[in-house]
């Protein structure tokens, strides 16, 4: 009896220590983010203006803006999400719900896990040889979006599989007992319950992609660009144009790198302001995804 009591007390102490360590880790992350935001705000807040958002880069720091950079980032992330999210979710559903458990699927799972840890520059080199030289897509927004889609695809697949795996098996059994097909079970029961976990993985993946620089530099992203891509909507038939996919581009991290590499301190202030904008874009994108996840979870009634 005494041994059982002492063992229980020991486990409570361990649980308390783990809770303290977890809280400290959370505080360290929050303090780091707060310090970064404060530093960027102090350096770049004065440069945040309408002119900064609507001006092209310039060799004069006071006239330089991020118009081409934030437009390029938005378009690249749009292409990345359109390609990576449906493909990654579909692959995760197939591997978890439909694929037979054999050596082939085990090999695929191992390779997906390994691809999630490959350095981003490797994806840039692969995209340079495949998309630029082999498929002749050029140094375009389409190439950039496909490159980042390949970069985050393993993360989306793994997150999708883990979210689906967390759905209780009795939900599937109840659906089958009522005569539902496998696809109806997945569509009407498994996916709604796993949407929160899938969106969490998508948030993490897109947050990684928006800050990547190495693969985009490898495929030829411009450090200075003074024009915007072709508009996706036109006044004449067929009204929708895809010419913008083949346009040259730059993104926020590359524009920041270009300014930081200059010796003038005014350009460093521009880089700080651009960094603040990039953080706001990332947090806003995450907030939208979290809201969507919350709405999906709210609709579910266990």
What can you tell me about this protein's structure?
This protein has 302 residues and is mainly α. The protein folds into two domains: 1-47; 50-299, MetI-like fold. The protein has eleven helices and no strands. It has helices spanning 2-44, 50-54, 67-98, 103-115, 120-134, 141-165, 169-177, 182-210, 214-218, 252-260, 265-299. The radius of gyration is 24 Å and the shape is globular. The mean pLDDT is 84.
Task: Itemize the secondary structure elements and their pairings.
Elements: H1 2-44, H2 50-54, H3 67-98, H4 103-115, H5 120-134, H6 141-165, H7 169-177, H8 182-210, H9 214-218, H10 252-260, H11 265-299
How many runs of DSSP E, i.e. beta strands?
A: 0
CATH fold-level name of the largest domain = MetI-like fold
> Main beta sheet, described?
none
The SSE order reads HHHHHHHHHHH
Number of helices: 11
User: How many independent structural domains?
Assistant: 2
Mean pLDDT: 84
Radius of gyration: 24 Å
pLDDT < 50 runs, ≥5 residues: none
CATH architecture tag of the largest domain: Orthogonal Bundle
Percent in strands: under 5%
CATH uppermost class of the largest domain: Mainly Alpha
Give the class from helix and strand content and strand pairing. mainly alpha
What fraction, in percent, of the residue positions are helical? over 70%
Can you identify the CATH superfamily of the largest domain? MetI-like
Query: What global shape is seen?
Result: globular
> What distance separates the N and C termini?
40 Å
């Amino acid at each position: 009896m005494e041994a059982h009591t002492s063992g229980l007390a020991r486990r409570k102490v361990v649980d308390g220590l783990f809770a303290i360590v977890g809280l400290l880790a959370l505080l360290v992350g929050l303090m780091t983010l707060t310090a970064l935001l404060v530093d960027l705000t102090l350096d770049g807040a004065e440069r945040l203006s309408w002119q900064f958002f609507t001006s092209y880069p310039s060799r004069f720091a006071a006239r330089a803006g991020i118009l081409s950079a934030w437009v390029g980032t938005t378009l690249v992330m749009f292409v990345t999400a359109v390609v990576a999210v449906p493909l990654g979710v579909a692959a995760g559903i197939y591997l978890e719900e439909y694929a037979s458990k054999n050596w082939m699927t085990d090999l695929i799972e191992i390779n997906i896990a390994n691809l999630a840890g490959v350095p981003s520059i490797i994806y840039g080199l692969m995209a340079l040889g495949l998309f630029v030289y082999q498929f002749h897509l050029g140094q375009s927004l389409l190439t950039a979006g496909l490159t980042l889609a390949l970069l985050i695809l393993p993360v989306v697949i793994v997150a999708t599989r883990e979210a689906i795996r967390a759905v209780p098996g009795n939900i599937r059994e109840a659906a089958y007992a009522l005569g539902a097909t496998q696809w109806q079970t997945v569509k009407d029961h498994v996916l709604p319950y796993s949407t929160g976990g899938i969106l969490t993985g998508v948030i993490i993946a897109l947050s990684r992609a928006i800050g990547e620089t190495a693969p985009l530099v490898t495929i030829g992203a411009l450090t200075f660009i003074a024009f915007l891509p072709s508009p996706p909507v036109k006044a004449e038939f067929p009204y929708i144009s895809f010419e913008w996919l083949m346009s040259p581009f730059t993104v926020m991290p590359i524009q920041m790198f270009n300014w930081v590499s200059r010796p003038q301190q005014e350009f460093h202030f521009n880089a700080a302001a651009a960094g603040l904008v990039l953080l706001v874009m990332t947090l806003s994108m995450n907030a939208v995804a979290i809201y969507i996840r919350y709405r999906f979870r709210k609709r579910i009634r266990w």
